[in-house]
Amino acid sequence: VSQVANLTLVSSACDMVSTAYASTKESHPYIRSVCDAAEKGVKSVTEATASCVQPVLTTLEPHVAAASEYASKGLDKLGEKLPLLQKPVEQIISDTKELVSSRVADAKDAVSS
């Protein structure tokens, strides 16, 4: 999970979502109260679940470690094949706009000639 979270694309997307969430909460008092209640509920459920699940996780630790290692290798290969994962969302959007703009210009030129 931490390896996925550290991918530039994922971390920049999370930052964007977090900023939008915080901005929305600040701008709209009714949404803020709903979000605050939801956050408290999620925190309570997470705390209650963590204490119940801990004994199971301890038992499954060797299996989780093996799955984690396998997933890590898979993510490394995916990162090699998709360099897009190492770019921030803003750069991907900018690159896409440039590509589309270039293709539209090429199409205009082709139609004009």
Automatic annotation (TrEMBL):
One of its GO terms (cellular component) is lipid droplet. Signal peptide: none annotated. Pfam families: Perilipin (PF03036). Its main location: other. Transmembrane segments: none annotated. Keywords: Lipid droplet. The keyword Oxidoreductase does not apply. It is found in: Lipid droplet. InterPro entries: Perilipin. One of its GO terms (biological process) is lipid storage. Belongs to the perilipin family. This is PLIN3 protein.
